[in-house]
Design brief:
- This protein is 35% helix and 19% strand.
- It has 500 residues and is of the alpha+beta class.
- Helix 1 runs parallel beside helix 6, helix 5 crosses helix 14 and helix 9 runs antiparallel to helix 10.
- The longest helix has 27 residues.
- It starts with 6 loop residues before the first strand and ends in a 5-residue tail after the last helix.
- The structure holds flavin-adenine dinucleotide.
């Protein structure tokens, strides 16, 4: 007799709940697991979330879903990176593209030799060597094509989509694979007397839902992981002080950009995310440094078109659950923690949680070693994303009380080490399963005006003329390839226009 998990109850049908349902239904087909998802239309979902990062493309492919179909049905556009306006100081702009930039020379990486020549004013901006950055600046997009030895081979992209429509898409996919959906509110959660494991949830109509494994996707409230299991929450507002957001869609005024734009504001920042049918906007801010009315005025004064509805107000506490997996309950999505959306990481962290859960998938013995390892990875990855966000806030010369406060936030040891390594010889360390690649750190460090004192000594082993030729060639090839790419709107019209 096997000890397999026989039933999974997913509580919550937002993006997290349906991503989990779709993944379990697709990737656990032969265990005969009964998968049930409970959601309440009356409670609804958080109703925001539009920008993703490149691994979302793998998520879609692994489900065996047609990417163009997802794009059509969620009104999605393509994203090549993030443009940062006014972050370092008013009037400044830098771009954080996805994907690789340039290529190495023997054992010396591109960032290493580029940095030496850039510090000597002999190389141009980092962005000029990235196909993503150049294409985004020109409003272009195309998927990678087989073109050996050109950057067209490696175009790296993500999507901007309406996360609620994505959840709806995954719902019909999951139901097609046998996931059962129950509409209604969970009234209470019952625990086993001895083990403290979750035994069942009881719905408002009295129905009792039992399962071996519970997935808490109930959003900020953390109905199971916190409400019932009291896993505890680490408040990270000392590092990431923004605690409110206003989100509002508006009419589009021109063709969609192939990137997310984020603009620093007096006490936070504003996003602009183009979808096919509208533009998503939001203002993330710190309530200690601006009022809700002022934040709303700032948002509404900086839209590219007419607001389509009243802004939606959200409150949050950045941080993470002490244990995302506790006993027979795994929290995914907002119930597991929240890091503000500056680098579009929330949906990705759901995806990571699902992937890790599949890797450490339990049986009914719920081995503590599996649970501990899952929590350790989750803790590490959440922490490194926090560091990356903290970098944006602390390394800035912006004026004003909020930004002065941010400049004085004590760095985490892990971020301090990264900055020290960079300041000495421009080195960037990527540890273990850290999400952001060295290129991302480099773009943001340079963009936020961090300057190393020197460069890696081994770069001097390269022939100067060869480096110069290489830099010129890469830049020219990137330019030429970007010029050959279609405009973003034309690519969408041809391949994946919404409503077609
Ligand atoms: C301002 C803001 C901007 C964001 N922008 C981005 C972004 O650009 N990119 C990104 O990746 N992420 C972003 N996010 C995060 C993203 O929105 C979430 O990670 C994602 O939507 C997942 O939410 P969720 O499914 O965990 O929770 P929710 O969407 O809140 O879903 C919770 C579900 O639980 C159900 N539920 C709750 N209580 C009960 C109950 N008692 N009984 C039955 N059902 C119940 C609800 O009905 C709902 O179905 C943003 C978040 C915020 C706050």
């Amino acid at each position: 007799m096997t000890n397999h998990i026989r039933s999974i109850a997913i509580i919550g049908g937002g993006t997290a709940g349906w991503m989990a349902a779709a993944s379990f239904a697709k990737h656990l087909p032969h265990l005969g697991i009964d998968i049930r998802l409970v959601e309440s239309e009356q409670i609804g979902t958080v109703g925001v979330g539009e920008a993703t990062i490149p691994p979302i493309i793998d998520f879609i492919r692994l489900l065996g879903i047609d990417e163009n179909d997802v794009i059509r049905k969620t009104g999605a556009t393509f994203k090549l990176g993030i443009g940062y306006r006014d972050w370092t100081r008013e009037g400044d702009y830098y771009f954080h593209p996805f994907g690789p930039t340039g290529f190495g020379m023997g054992p010396i990486s591109f960032p290493s030799y580029w940095l030496k020549y850039w510090l000597q004013n002999k190389a141009s901006r980092l962005e000029d060597y990235s196909i993503q950055a150049v294409a985004a600046a020109d409003g272009r997009f195309m998927r990678p094509v087989h073109a050996p030895n050109t950057p067209l081979n490696k175009i790296t992209y993500a999507l901007h989509f309406d996360a609620s429509l994505f959840a709806r898409y995954l719902r019909s996919f999951s139901e097609g694979l046998g996931v059962k959906r129950t509409e209604g509110k969970v009234r209470s959660v019952e625990l086993h007397n001895e083990s403290g494991f979750i035994d069942s949830v009881t719905m408002e109509d009295g129905e009792v839902i039992k399962a071996d494994l519970f997935i808490d996707c109930s959003g900020f409230r953390g109905l199971l992981i916190e409400g019932a299991l009291k896993a505890g929450y680490q408040d990270w507002t000392n590092w990431l002080p923004c605690d409110r957001a206003l989100a509002v869609p508006c009419e589009r005024s021109g063709p969609p950009q192939s990137y997310t734009e984020v603009t620093a504001r007096k006490a936070g920042w504003q996003w602009r995310i183009p979808l096919q049918h509208r533009t998503g906007n939001g203002h993330v801010y710190c309530s200690g440094f601006t009022s809700d009315d002022e934040a709303r005025d700032t948002l509404l004064a900086n839209l590219e078109g007419k607001a389509l509805v009243d802004p939606l107000a959200l409150r949050f506490t950045t941080g993470r659950r002490n244990k995302a997996w506790h006993k027979n309950c795994v929290a995914l999505g907002l119930s597991s923690g929240f890091l503000e959306p500056l680098e579009s990481t929330s949906i990705h962290l759901i995806q990571r949680g699902i992937a890790m859960l599949l890797k450490f998938f339990p049986d009914r013995s719920f081995e503590q070693a599996d649970i501990d390892r899952y929590n350790k990875i989750f803790e590490f990855e959440f922490g490194r994303v926090r560091d990356f966000l903290l970098l944006h806030y602390t390394q800035t010369e912006r004026q004003g009380a909020f930004w002065e406060h941010c400049r004085n936030i004590p760095l985490t040891d892990s971020l301090q080490e990264k900055i020290d390594l960079f300041r000495s010889h421009g080195r960037i360390l990527r540890e273990d399963t850290e999400l952001f690649p060295t290129g991302s750190w480099l773009y943001v460090m340079i963009g936020q005006a961090l300057r190393p004192r020197g460069y890696e000594p081994t770069v001097d082993t390269l022939d100067q003329q060869a480096v110069k030729t290489n830099l010129d060639d890469i830049r020219a090839v990137v330019r030429k390839c970007a010029d050959a790419m279609p405009m973003h709107q034309d690519f969408i019209d041809k391949n994946c226009r919404a409503g077609n």
